[in-house]
Every structure is written in structure tokens, then in C-alpha cells.
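As noted in the main text, all predictions were made from sequence alone. Below is one such record, for AraC family transcriptional regulator.
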Amino acid sequence: MWSNSTRPRRAAWTTERAHRRVRNRSAGGAAMNGSDSVLLARFVLTRARAAGLDPVELARAAGIGSDALDGDPGSIPGQCYPRLWELFERRMESPHVGLLAAERYGMGELGMMDYLLATAPTFGEGLRAAGDFGARLTNSRSMRVVAETDRDLTLAADTGAEGRGSELAAQATFAYLTARARLGSGTPVTPRVVTLRQRAPRHHAPITEFFGTATVEFGADADLLILRRADVDLPQHTANPGLAEVLRRGAATTVLPAPPARAWVDLVVTEFDSLPLDHEALESISLEDMAWRLRISPRTLQRRLAAAGTSWSRELASARRRAAW
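Prediction:
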């Protein structure tokens, strides 16, 4: 773990308490059986396009079908969103793509989430409204308040899954919230403490400069953003109480649909295509191997393929034919 400075004792105690809460809530959450709103994927793809990347290619590489990129909001398997972040990082060859996305995003790219935050009287009230709505956009990750004192408010970005994609998603979430707090209040809001599970990058100055605090910790047990109560309670110049109430009522009726059955076939095809294109690799992979790669049980994988009108043996044979070409 790396830190540029020593935290105040009270902030350190708050951080440790928040770490314990996140660990307790995440225990046993290794399987990736959830789903995410396609709006989260579209946010990453919009940022990737702005950075000069091909969003269709990026989506395909993450196992997201082209039909998810347009049309009405739906959902995608929970594996796809963190994969997008990993691919974004690799294409850009930068460990700071989460910051890049937050710096350049346009108001409204996250739909109702943006407007729930912007129209609330204070950023803190917007956080709570957006947090409630966010829980309806995903059942595979969360952003929630885990501790409050008269001085601080602690937010946790939590997912049962590990890996670089989840780390980048947390980086982007905290960067986005910090940018929103600054935009809404018109002041240079600076978090008291930021803790990240990711290892310290070789050049970490962009992270400390973005957040405006030297108290950024890497290699932590949990991804936490600790904001000063005074900043959380700042009035927002974008506030619109009447519109905020209408938006909250609308958000309360939002339901995350299950991903279309075909989405799981797209994900399996992507996994096959990521393997070495040789006979030995495709001969040795089993249903259990694929389920492990997707972080679901073999039985769940069989059910999801059957729901799409296909089977493991059929998809394996199809992959072998593609490799033979």
C-alpha cells in the first residue's frame, strides 16, 4: 500500500470501519451471476469513441452484441462491463482511463443518474437519490454510503468480483462523483481520503492531481471515497427541487430486465475467440473450464445456453469450425 501522507486519526478509524463493512458484505460473492444496465456499457463506449477507439469493436471484444448499443435500455451480463474497462485500458495503454472518462464525459451520458445528482438541493441528497437508482441499474455491483459522521461521508464501490476491470470501474466511479460534486457546487471539491484496491501505478501523479488530495491509498481492502461533510452539504447551483421530485418518482419505478438469452451466447463466443486458434486449445476446453472463465456454475451456463436455443456441444463445434477456417 502506498500513501503520500498520514491520514488524520478520525479519518483512519472511519476508513477501517468502512473497510470492515465492505468486506462483510462482499464475503462469498465470487460468482458473477448478475447483470448491468446497458447504460453503463454505453457510457464506457461513448468515452472510448471520444478517445478515438472503435466502440463496435470494443463491444464485440467484451462479448456485447451490436443490438445492445442502440435502442431501448436493456441489460448485459455482469461480466461485460468490467471487461469493457479492461479493454479500454489496453487499447489506450493507460492505467488512468477511469479519470479520462470522468474528465471528458458530457452531461446526460448516464441518463437519469446524471439528472438525479444535478437537480438535488445538495450533492449529498443527490448521492442518495442516485444510489437508490443505481441499485436498479445493476445487481452485480453497488455504490453506497457505508459510514457517516459529523465530519465525513464514506462511499464504497463494491463488487463481489475481482480483477482489473472492477478496479478501473471503481476508479471511474469515484472520478465521476468527484467531477459531479465540483460541477454541481461550482467549487473545487477535494475528497478527504481515496482508497483503491488497485496496485499503485508506476506514475500515480494523475490520480492524486485529479482528486486534489495526496491521501490516496493503493492496495487497500476496499474502494472507498471519503468526502467532507461540508462539501456534501454544499448547495448546488444546478438544483431544481420540482424536477428532482419528478425524477425520483420515475427512478423508483425502474426495473432492470434480465439480459436477452442471446447475450450469453455472445459472451461464450467471445471467450472461444479469445483462445489460441489451434486444435489443441479447443479440444482441451470443457464446459467446466468455460464456466470458470465466466465466473458462473456449469449448470447455470448450460441453462443459459439452452434458453438461447443452443447448447455447449453446439457452441463448441461452432468454435472448432471457425478455428478450422
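The first helix runs from residue 9 to 26. Residues 1-14, 19-31 have pLDDT under 50 and may be disordered. These features were considered when defining construct boundaries for the mutagenesis experiments described in Section 2.9.
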